[in-house]
Amino acid sequence: MPEFKDELDKLRAALRDATPAPDEASKEAALRVAEENFANLQGSAITARPTDTSPQRTGLLKGLGQMFMKPNLKPMMLATSSLVIIGVGVVLTTPLMRSDQAPVTSSEPLAPPIMAPEVDAAAEQPPLAKVAERPETPIAELAEAPLEAEAELSVTDDFSTTTMADSDGAAAAPPAPSSKRLARSMGVTAIEGATPSGLSVSNAAPLRDRLPQPQIAQSNDQFPDATPNPLKVTSEEPVSTFSIDVDTASYSWLRSSLSRGQLPDPNSVRVEELVNYFPYAYPVPEGDVPFQQTVTVSKTPWNPDTQLMHIAIQGAQVTERPPLNLVFLLDTSGSMQDANKLPLLVQSFRLMLGQLRPEDEVAIVTYAGSAGTVLEPTKASERRKIEDALLRLSAGGSTAGGEGLRAAYALADQMSRDGEVSRVLLATDGDFNVGMQSDAELKGFVEQKRKSGTYLSVFGFGRGNVNDALMQTLAQNGNGQAAYIDTLAEAQKVLVDQLSGAMFTIAQDVKIQVEFNPVTVAEYRLIGYETRALKREDFNNDKVDAGEIGAGHTVTALYEVTPVGSDAVLTDPLRFGTVAADGNTSDLAFLRLRYKEPGATQSKLLEEVVPVGTVDAGSEAAFSAAIAGFGQLLRGNTALGDWGYSDAIALANANKGDDEFGYRAEAVKLMRLAQSLSPN
Q1: CA-based nearest residue to 304, from 549, 518, 614
Q2: Which regions of the chain are under pLDDT 70?
Q3: Cα–Cα distance for residue pair 357/324, rounded to 1 Å
Q4: What is the DSSP letter of 124?
């Protein structure tokens, strides 16, 4: 027994001698470092910049993510937190790992617990001063990578080097952790910057900027190439003939372009469609004529030496309208999937349903790869059924436009009855790439069908694939209107506020012919209507198609004329030219209009003399002149001289009138946008 006691005492003495006595100064320094790290972690750490990639989570990171989704996470965190506290206590009371131990490597971004400085082999106590001599040696720099990142981490024995490979394989410093991610790693780590005790961590280099850059999509929009009308010499060509135009697609397209921060394609700007976009308070018709024409002559805003002849037409309103049969021919091809195409189309046609009467009928035909009837003829009183059919539409497939037209007209023929109005409403982004492909073939088909009394209106949606030239051809030859719907507000204007004008024709094949007096007019220029020009002999030919006037529609046409003897005359007289024999100096021009009543085959003629002299044409004519000038500026017309956007804005602002729906105020805003975007 005494021997056993002696051996036990020896063992206790050996253990006591091998274990260093606790040093209050060392313990205080270590606790101070821990407190500083904890306090620093309460702030916002620098985080990595977002990238355009999102690699799959693998390995331990994936496991950690799944673990944090467990419902029993709370007790697990309590248990692991207890282990962390015990581990920190052990570290503070046990000798440090020697530098000659094997290096630690890890394929996962775990953050180890705080480690104290290396122990000097010749000393019993760890010299804290040695840390200050090695500022490049961080104390546990490791930071947990984002759960979304695919990282590879390597750590040396003294943690002096730490690397992370991003998803592209490029080396990058680990992002500084947040306090939440440190808690997940179940350890404590030092953060960026030096502490008062000399501990430091290298600054993390920011990840390279890999945010996605905006891409400009290639546009396949097509517009008719129409050169602005040239200046005409009256003595050589005194007669001007054209078809009226009540389309408004160009204005909506212009608005869409400017709202995107782009000046519109000059070919997309049709000045007469800009002018005719707005309702005007023109004199109303009296008697049996379905419309009233008014002609005034005033000074030209952009040239005081010329005059502006303003032709205004006001259509009569319809008090009692016949039943309406509508076939919605809707493009559901793959190109219509954008938000401003098929979804906007569905919303737009749902708006129109509220304006229909119970006795009206609606049918729906779609085309994408092949044409099909989605809704058989249905009374407008069954609005829920029609809306359900619209809401079920989806985009996909190629564009069988030709087949769709055939199916729609066949359905319209089935719905037509005496005394009723039938119309096909084509809604598309303008792409017809299957079936009847040539404009001539489509034009001939639509011309043939309009003779049966079923007309065609075309509504364009979206950008990037609009075939404006084809839309114009179909609408003009289908005795209908062409409009471009870029917003739901535009759908409200076209399909709700102006439904009667769009659906009910009061005069068809309306043509205008002006003969200028060479004694009083040296030169003239028709502003706009380039795609509506007619030959002189077409005016008296009732077989030649022209534009239609709908109920309540207004039509405006403008000529810039140069009086004889004006300083604005640009052409020299012909050496062998002749002077007009009659010497009439009281007339400026002679106006003729032809039109047909709906369904008639023979036209009627209206004539009016335009006298010499200028008057104050009023605010309606002045506003139309401001819009005409705006359109010419967008087309780059040099006839305006120094007159620019500021002048157009001032003229429009001064003549906005009542502007019940804010259309004119919106036009001024568009002028200002164009002025800002213009390079001049």
Answers
A1: 614
A2: 1-5, 18-22, 39, 41-218, 369-371, 398-401, 431-439, 577-582
A3: 8
A4: S
Task: Report DSSP letters for 227-245, one per residue.
Answer: PPPPPEETTT--EEEEE--
Task: Report the pLDDT value the prediction gives residue 378, as an integer from 0 to 100.
Answer: 97
DSSP structural state of residue 266: G
Quick check: helix, strand or coil at residue 427?
strand
Cα dihedral: 498, 500, 501, 502 (round 10): 80
| Exposure on the CB side of residue 601, measured as CA atoms within 13 A | 2
Residues in contact with 63: Cβ distance below 8 Å, sequence separation at least 6, in sequence order:
none
Beta-strand runs (E) in 259-393: 291-300, 303-315, 324-331, 361-368, 370-379
- Bridge partners (DSSP) of residue 325 are 361, 422
Parallel, antiparallel or unpaired: strands 162-165 and 153-155: antiparallel
Please answer whether residues 664 and 656 qualify as being in contact, where contact means their C-beta atoms are separated by less than 8 angstroms.
yes
Calpha distance 615→617 (Å, rounded): 6
CA-CA distance, 265 to 284, in Å (whole number)?
Answer: 36
User: Cα(43)–Cα(270) distance, rounded to whole angstroms?
Assistant: 61
Task: Give the global pTM.
Answer: 0.69
Do the strands 239-243 and 505-516 form a parallel or antiparallel pair, or are they unpaired?
A: antiparallel
Residue 27 CB-half CA count within 13 A: 9
The CA distance from 121 to 101, in Å, is: 13
Contact 323, 420 (CB under 8 A): yes
DSSP state letter for 552: T
Q: Count of CB atoms within 10 A of residue 644's CB?
A: 15
User: What is the spatial distance between Cα 53 and Cα 51, in angstroms, rounded to a whole number?
Assistant: 6
On whether the CB atoms of residues 591 and 311 are closer than 8 A, the answer is yes
pLDDT number for residue 168: 41
CB 589 within 8 A of CB 307: no
Question: Is residue 296 within 8 Å of residue 531, measured between CB atoms?
Answer: no
Provide the angle, in degrees to the nearest 10, between the axes of the packed helices 619-635 and 645-653: 160
Place of tokens 């030709």: 402
Q: Can you say whether residue 299 is alpha, beta or left, with left for phi > 0 and alpha for psi between -120 and 50 degrees?
A: beta
Classified as helix, coil or strand, 163 is strand
Query: Cβ contacts of residue 396 below 8 Å, gap of 6+?
Result: 332, 333, 334, 337, 368
Q: What pLDDT score was predicted for residue 571? A: 93
Write the DSSP symbol of residue 660.
T
Tell me the two tokens of residue 347: 């919303």
Residue 532: what pLDDT? 95
pLDDT in tens, 320-362: 889 999 999 999 988 898 999 999 999 999 999 999 999 999 9
d(CA 541, CA 555): 22
Give me the residues paired with residue 232 across strands: 524
Length in residues, the chain: 680
Residue type for position 652: A
The number of angstroms, rounded, from the C-alpha of 463 to the middle of its chain's C-alpha atoms is: 8
DSSP state of 537: G
Residue 640 tokens read as: 């305006």
User: What is the residue whose two structure tokens read 């320094």?
Assistant: 29
Token couple for 208: 């390279």
- Strand order through the sheet with 171-172: 153-155, 162-165, 171-172
